[in-house]
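To whoever is on call:

I kicked off a structure prediction for a single chain this morning and the downstream step that reads the tokens threw a length-mismatch warning. I double-checked the sequence; it's 312 residues and nothing unusual in it as far as I can see. Pasting both halves so you can look.
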Amino acid sequence: MRPGARRALAAALARRGSRPGSFSAAPALAKGFEVASTVNASSREFMRVRRDAAEIAARRRRAAVRRRGLWTAATVVGLAGAAGVAVTIAQDGLTATATATAVLVLALLIWAVTGLVRAVAVLRRSSRVVAALPPPQPGRPAVAPGIRSEIARLNDYSDGLRSLVSASAAGSVSGRSTAPPGPLAVQLRDVVMAADQAERQLRQLAQDYTGLARTGTRAPGASAASTAGLLAGEIGAGVAHYGQLVEATAAVTSAAAALQAGAPSTTVVPAPDRKAIGGGAAGQSPTGELQEQIERLRALALGLRELAGPAD
């Protein structure tokens, strides 16, 4: 049904419900639209979790752990069989049956050890990917219509930060290098963990607002409306502050990545955050400039933790 037709139907039902003794279907229709929106948001959240890069990496690591366990069990069985064959040969001598059994057990043992080595290598690579990627995003439950625009902005900021860090992590774990993550990757992960704390706090406030909105008809009108207004204002201010910190993180990360690649950095930190994260000193070496960008990321992580302070 088109939006215009839905509005016309709702208006017609409202006019019919205004007649004396008639049943008003407008509230039921609005409730149905709200339930449909909630179901739609829940299905999108389920698909988002299934496609989350951190969740995929964690699932692959769990599968690698299971494969390592299976190959370890096969290796233990092969070793036990080899020990049994050795005891038999020591007691009865090298007979034709013992020789055939020894060949089969040796083949099984080589096959199991080869699989175990491959499984351990895959597990090490999966562990490096999980360590480099940011942790899975906080959940995104459905919220009341009054704050959906603010929560949509929060979703965009969170997705942008995840994309930035995931791109950095993809470069740090490419190939077969076993080197540990650099200081920039470590600090970016710390920023993401601090951002997750702030995001959980904002989403908890959104759930409080949603609870008030859904029970508003059974609560004292003035008190519920006042509390809901305060919560909505706090959520809006928190999302705006969160967005400023995320934008500053993106700018600092771009500058640090350029310095790591050996290119001169022309990225300017957004003005609202320069005081909080410090200004750049002129005439520094590339190493000193990179360390300065890392210190700025550390300051941004502290700012995000301050934003999440009430949740502690």
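Update from on-call: the warning came from a stale cache, not from the record. Cleared it. Sanity check on the structure: The CA atoms of residues 191 and 301 lie 5 Å apart.
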